[in-house]
Every structure is written in C-alpha cells, then in structure tokens.
Amino acid sequence: MNPGDTRAFAAQLLVPxxxxxGSLSSLDADLASSVIKERDRGFVKxxxxxxxxxxxxxEALANQLLREPxxxxxxxxxxxxxxxxxxxxxxRVPPHAAVSETAGAARAFGKGWATKVINGCLRRFxxxxxxxxGKVDRDAPVALWxxxxxxxxxxxxxxxxxxxxxxxxNEPGPMxxxxxxxxxxxxxxxxxxxxxGLAASPCAVAEDGIQLESPCDVTQLPGxxxxxxxxxxxxAQLCADLLAxxxxxxxxxxxxxxxxxxxxxxxxLLERFDARLTALDVDATRLKRVxxxxxxxxxxxxxxxxxxxAASADDSWWDGEPFDVILLDAPCSxxxxxxxxxxxxxxxxxSDIAELAALQGRLLASLWxxxxxxxxxxxxxxxxxxxxxxxxxxxxxxxxxxxxADTPSDLSxxxxxxxxxxxxxxxxxxxxxxxxxxxxxx
Length: 442
Fold this sequence. Notes:
Helix content: 40-55%
CATH architecture of the largest domain: 3-Layer(aba) Sandwich
CATH topology of the largest domain: Rossmann fold
Largest sheet: 9 strands, mixed
C-alpha cells in the first residue's frame, strides 16, 4: 500500500465529520478492520485528530488558497487539502512528500483532476505561508482554533480564562491512569511503572490517579490485562472522592450509575466501595463496553439498556426500590474534553446546547423520583458551559423543594460555580468537569 492510500483513508474518515454527520468515535475500530497496516495506523489517526483540532485555521487557509469553493460532493478533496496543510504546518513529514503524496491521493477517489488543484494550493501555501497565516489569524476564532459560537460562549462564561481554555483544548491531553485499589496501591504501581521504564507521577488531586510523562499503548502498562490499572482522566476520578462520604459508612448501599457507558466511573465506584450497583445506559451497544470493562477488572454490576429521561422513561428495568446514591454523568456538550475529542469542534452546533440542557433537566427530574429520602445524587458533566452546569443546578433546586445542595465547600480543586464545583481544562493536567452533589431531604 503506497503512502497516498493512508492519506486517502484518513480523508475518507474525515468526510462525515466535515459534513457534520459523524465523529471520530469509531476511529480505532475503523482502523482495526481496515487494510491499513498497523505501522501506518498511528499516522492516519494523527491526521484525523490533527485536522479536527486545527480545523478552523486550516479551513480559513484553504479558503484563501482555492479559487472557488469545492462542491459539496467533493468533501473528500477538501479533506485531502486540509490534510496536506496539516502535514506542512504540524508534522515532520518532508514538505515534498506532504504535497505530492496528498495530491496523488485524490486518484483513490477517482478524481484525477483534483491532483492539480491540491498540488497548486499546497505549493502556493509553501511560497506564501507567512503572509497567508498572518492574514487569517486576524480572526480570533481562526487564531485560537475554535468555532466562533464556542469562543463567544467561553468568553461570556469565563472572561478571565477563555483564552487559557482554548489553549488547553488545543493541546492533546496527557495519558492519565487510575489504579484499582482492590489490587494495588498507587505507590506500588508507580514503582512498577519505574521498573518498566515508564516515567509517571501522582495526580495532584485524584487519590487514585497517575499521570504518565508520555502516552503509551495500554499493552505496555504492567497489569493492565489483569485489571490492576485503567485509563481515566483525573477529573473523572473525582466522582468517587465526592461520593466517598456517603458510600463508606455501609456495604449495602443501592447505587445507580444512570448514564454509565463506557464504564469508567462505574468501575471506579466498585473498586472503591462495596455496593449494589446498577449501570444504566440508553445505548445498548455502548453498554457492552461497560460489561467488557467490568469483566477485565473482575467487578460485577447489574446492567440495563434503557432511557432514564422523563420524556421516554422505560421503568421496566427498575424494581421500585429507591436508590441510596445516584450518579448522573449527564450527556453534555463535551466542551471540557475537546482536547481528547477534537471532532467536537465540528460535530457540535450552538443549537445543541439548549437541547442538551433540556435533556439534562429531564434526567434530573426523572432520576430524583428514584432517589431515597436522605439519599445523594451526584450531577456531573464534562462541560465548561454554565447553562449545563451551575445554571442547570440552580434551576433544578428552585423547582425541587426537597433538594438541597451538598457540594463540599472546602475542596482543594476547581472553583466554586453556583452550588457546584467547576474544573477548567488544564494544559498539562485534568480535563474540564463540573460536579454538584445534591441531597434529598428525608
């Protein structure tokens, strides 16, 4: 397989993302089932993630280079042009290869005419790079690699931090691990990593977290297959810390993880506490990932595929006994984890935010009815937008007389946000996350 085919395959994967009709969520599976050789898969993945991460700027440059916009049916050629620009700007690919191999990849789509278009655009960019970049960077969304609507939301919500949020979003997140304390201590596992030649350090705020100095394949992690360790961002691990006060005083608490896939928080709760846990998710396919995760970690939970929202709640999975603890890791904009899912910049629309906030409100109302008096509900999102976080909780408390905010006021991480706690993405640390702990009055 010639190098051009890897670029054509990357362009093929990017087409639905550029058209706003897909994401990179199945990228690893797509690569595994493809004819792309294993040694080339990292290159394809880097192209796809890189184009999405830098898309606003690449798109602006492409618009300057093209004499006229490409037709909708030629999104594959647009993808190749963006791939070529990304290689020249951000990869160590020899410039001549970035140009010739990317242009030649157009033939894989039966569009030989496009080889001249791509070749001409990329060669012109090489000649006029400084001037073209200076021109497009006058526009803040282009210079900061974010859609204009998203940039405005960040500026309104975080006037002192919006630029830092963008900069953190534009850097790939560090690889963070979570030790399974049923099997190993963090100190012991750090020593095992040192022995394996993997540099790492304890996370600053998550008790079970370890941050690797450099990412690696999970097969290189000692004890991964045996369940000693999992990959999970530090922010996501704080869920178990916040629920520790209400789960350590009893071994028989009924716990519901209402939006559980892919299962990281489900597993962490079971690693930390002896509880009767039910894991729920609306997507039966994604729920299988929860089962796989629990099997690797030698943990057990009751799994149900069902919609927990009030609009279409199917309560056939529920036996009617209230839960002592409910975790609602609500569907959200994902604006706190863009660095790990850069396709969010293309897949998410401004109109989605109101729809997501409405869904979050329905989930809160529906699940509150299943919470026992005196019980605790932990609301979480990987968003940095107040309408999904502090404002959402403020509105829920206003319409729910028996709900009381119970988020600790002495947390060593994040910042107070209404009745909850907000973490903003940190360039070399945790993702962006929001938590609010609520108690149901007896």
